[in-house]
C-alpha cells in the first residue's frame, strides 16, 4: 500500500530518545535512500535494551548499529576461540 502512495517506511529504534538535532541529521542521511519524489515516513522509538546506538529498518532492509548486537558478536567470538 505504501508503495502505491510513493512512501518509504523507515523505523528508527534507539537506546535513548534522540534530540531534535539528531533526528534532523538522521532524516537528512535517510533521505538518500528515497527515490525521487518518494516521501519518507519515519517513526522513532526507544528500546533501552539496545544499550547504545540504534536499529534502522528501511522497508525490508535491517541495519543493527546497537551496542547490544556488538556485545553479542564479541561474546560469540570469545566463545568460539575458547
UniProtKB/TrEMBL annotation:
Its main location: membrane. It holds the Pfam family OSCP. GO terms for cellular component: membrane. One of its GO terms (molecular function) is proton-transporting ATP synthase activity, rotational mechanism. This is ATP synthase subunit O, mitochondrial. InterPro entries: ATPase_OSCP/dsu (IPR000711). Keywords: ATP synthesis, Hydrogen ion transport, Ion transport, Membrane, Transport. It is found in: Membrane. PANTHER family: ATP SYNTHASE DELTA CHAIN. The lineage of its organism: Eukaryota, Metazoa, Ecdysozoa, Nematoda, Chromadorea. Signal peptide: none annotated. It comes from Meloidogyne javanica (Root-knot nematode worm).
Amino acid at each position: 500500500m505504501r508503495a502505491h502512495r510513493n512512501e518509504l517506511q523507515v523505523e528508527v529504534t534507539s537506546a535513548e530518545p534522540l534530540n531534535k538535532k539528531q533526528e534532523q541529521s538522521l532524516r537528512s542521511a535517510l533521505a538518500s535512500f528515497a527515490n525521487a519524489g518518494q516521501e519518507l515516513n519515519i517513526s522513532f522509538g526507544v528500546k533501552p535494551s539496545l544499550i547504545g546506538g540504534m536499529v534502522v529498518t528501511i522497508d525490508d532492509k535491517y541495519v543493527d548499529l546497537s551496542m547490544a548486537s556488538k556485545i553479542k558478536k564479541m561474546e560469540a567470538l570469545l566463545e568460539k576461540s575458547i
